[in-house]
Known about the structure:
four-stranded mixed sheet; alpha+beta; four-stranded antiparallel sheet
Amino acid sequence: MGKYTIDFVEKVIDNVHGFIGLTKVEMEICELPIFKRLRDIKQLALANWVFPGAEHTRYNHSLGVMHIADKMAIKLKYSDEERQLVRLAGLLHDIGHYPLSHCGESVYLNKIELDKNNYKNEQKRKVVEEIDSLENNKSVKNKSIKMHHEEIGKLVIMNSKEIKDVIKLSNCDFLKIEDICAIITGDFSYKNELSDKIQLLHSELDADRIDYIMRDSTFAGTTYGFFGIDLLLENLTLKEYKGRKIICIKNKGIPSADQFLIGRFFMYSQVMYNRHVSILSYMSKVIMDYGIKEGLFYNEIEFIKLAKCDEYNSFTDSKFWELVYKLKDGNTSDEIKYYVSSLIKYSHLSHVKCDEVNIVTSKKKAYDKLYKSDIYNSCKSDNNKLPQLRICHITKHVLEEEFLESIIDGKNKEEEKIKRFEDGLTVIGDDGEIKLLIDDLRSLTRGMYDSSLYLLREYDIGV
């Protein structure tokens, strides 16, 4: 068998990237019902109710991620075989996504424990707990990792005869399903030699983030997704550290990298965390959670079984709306009835404007402000107000000195440093050593790394 060469047999026109080429194996996967399913899952759930242009789906996002991953791979001088591997991983990375995208996913990741089906009181308790955690620096997250859409995607791929047959019959013997799944799920422990390929989909500067910032911004009608992508990609390079290849940015790409992180921050704060989008997301989650508890929607066990069979093809946004209309005349609580009737009328809870807390600051200063707010005190009362706290970070990483202080076991120090470089946005310093962007004195985000946006809002429940 001769050396594999990337050959585009078809192309599609994309609103964001222009023409996107497809190889034979990619074109055949795009024709499968399991992939076409992504046409019926909106990327930003119900955000199109607020930003009318945000009608884009996981389908065109997946094409975009494949395209960006390939541009990165070309700059990193990957072989055509390596390019095809990361292209397929990019194309299939969202194959396991839920109805309403991350909105639906969060229902399965974060179970809502209730007392007497009172979602309002549980939300008040949760907001108080989240605010209090800012003072004691504790995390209140309790996610079910096995229900992450990428893990579900692995289940779908491993159990899809159609996908496996397309890859098997593609004359690409170098393509291994296990390698594709490891890149999709971000399994850095799978093979050290795949580390840089995984970083293309799992780091602070990956093809997934690049495409969704550009795409979400374009379709929402904002300018936050515009950054120096060509300059950024032109300054991509690989640097070996302790036997692992780390994807890095050269010096000239630092301003574009800053611009990218800041643009992402504004996209979340102004679009995803928009006060109308945010409450629509909450109402949808509660309805889906209620449906699961009442046996009207797939529970975790049923969902995992579903991901392994052809019925998964129909698990799209329409399933959520089927649930909404099932609940319309059902015997539910007044709270659920109000959410359901509101969505059917394309409306949502009213925002109480005067009580909003909207600040960009450090965690300690945020706690002082939030703790003294009227909304925090309102959470302790039995009223028809619904609080919501949204937090948006520039980066999830801290400066190197703080990071090193957090490592208790010295034996794991080097391995933790490797993970930090694999996961973060890494640059090459003047001395040739690698460091995270926030550790570089030339980076604007260095001075902003510990500042986050804290949005505390309150809404009226009309029952």
